Request: fold
Amino acid sequence: MAFIPMARTAFRNFFTKPATRRYPYVVRPAFSTSRGRILNDFQKCILCSMCAKHCPANAIVVDKAQGLWRIDRFACVICGACVRTCPVKCLSISNERPRAVDFSDIAGRSQEHRREVAPPAQGAAPAAGAPSGA
Amino acid sequence: MSDHEKPAPGPTVIPFGPQHPVLPEPLHFDLLLEDEKVVGAIPQIGYIHRGLELLVDKRDYLDYVHVAERICGICSFMHGMGYCEAVETVLGTQIPDRGRWLRTFWCELERVHSHLLWLGLAADAFGFENLFHASWRARETIVDVAEETAGGRVIFGSAIVGGVSRDPDDETLKRCMKAVHAVRAETLRLAEVWIGEPTVRHRLSGVGKITKDQAYSLGAVGPMLRASGVDYDARRRGYEAYGEIEFTTVVETAGDCMARAVVRLREIEQSFKIMDEVVAKMPAGPVSVPIKGMPPAGDAWNRVEQPRGEVVYFVRSNGTRQLERFRVRTPTFANIPAMVEAIKGASLADVPTIILTIDPCISCTER
Amino acid sequence: MTERETQTLEEIEVSNLVPTVDALRVAGWRLVQVLGISAADHTELNYSFGLGLQHKILRLKVAAGAEVPSITDVFLAAYLYENEIRDLFGVKIERIAVDWLGKVYEPVQGKAFSKITVAATSSEGGPR
Reply:
């Protein structure tokens, strides 16, 4: 009779281990190719804001005048467009996944990098301070 | 006191959706019933319209692929790939061979994923939850293979203009195919239940029948068309590596829900064979070509066979880095008139099964 | 476009839309899709038909404010496409078989996909 296949599966399910993992106590390690989060090696970054121009989700904010590079992890879809357009290759996709607790407050939503920017030289025209990017 | 009025003569109207336990996405019907039989249905869409086609002139043409991918979750790779192929036609570039074969591999992986997901949802629609979870357990291995080769479980993220963005090596592909073979064995066991189990047959056979002429003249595509006996599969166009692979179009003639389920089961089996062939014949080499500069002005049409049917892409470029128009005609959009025709004459309890049988992807329909 | 399929494009006028489409139906073609593209002073409608692997496109340029007959008498399935085009582009398509009277998507800003400017139309403006 044709009901035997499902009955066999149901019977077998009593003796095999569950199909689900007891997350968060048991975590499956991510694959090396998993798209987890975008990382910026800030030493190399030249704050050209190409990444901010190409982000389809408008998740990156770059302000050269203040030496600021910020990514909103909640908006980022880890597509890799920024990684491909970066001229100095400082951006990369890492396979670490953000955890739910990272988004629990506004401060946890973004990843910021700042560096000291020298004030403009005397006599030079003041630089336009409008932030570039979205 | 209110005076009793007799109810107006004519069919009763029962609203179905947009929230319904069997519907994966919101869709509304006004069902016209006489007793328990449906005599007509008026569909209504528009609950999930995001205007994604309007974004095309606000994003660089190389970045838009990531928006196109996110039109839908289950059809995402093929939307991205269809867009990329249309843009590559406008640009006149050929992508390297390994890129073409990897795209074919991921297309078939997505087809298996989508059909296994549909098997679960359709089983849930007629109440067989055990089969639903068994199908989705088999699907878990497929999404793990997708994550290992492409980077994402559901949204692969690997189609880019000029090729693909990931290059899994041959050893990874062979290892993943071993896991896929285990899924194949499990799917054969599940197919026994779909075809042999008397209760499933009772719910699906003879339900939602449309004839060959009706399916063709109402513009149905995909398994809806092929289950009624029409031999049309857009993969026959030979895009990507399909021109170099042997496969037959899966056709059934009964035209009812059971035939459509059988078409999808046979397509899963066929996709496993195609994936084996693709991995065996995968050429070596680069996977993408760099694309720079502005695209030339021009139009391009593209048609791709998604799990749900034929998708038509149209791209118009006006010579700047933003494209002027991008249009996706998705299979569910074309199948809705055929579904409305199939609902006529069914009893109310069969309506969820018939709606699920076109594999509705409403987020694709409304973009 | 691949080697196995053929694709032809034909420009037609509003007046011979329905007879051309009817001739295609008699010859066995099926409706594939209807597409709208907006320009500054007109809307372009592309009707696609398929027969086996062949693909034929009929191109129709509709001036702002002009009326287009519906092809639902020939291909009933066109009602979805024509309702959508009427809502999103503001093209006047008359006598669609199943008519949702402008409520397909109910966008907050009507005719969202239309680029026709106020200067091109005399009576109603079509703000983007």
Notes: Chain B has one domain: 12-366. DSSP finds twelve helices and eight strands in chain B. The longest strand of chain B covers residues 298-306.
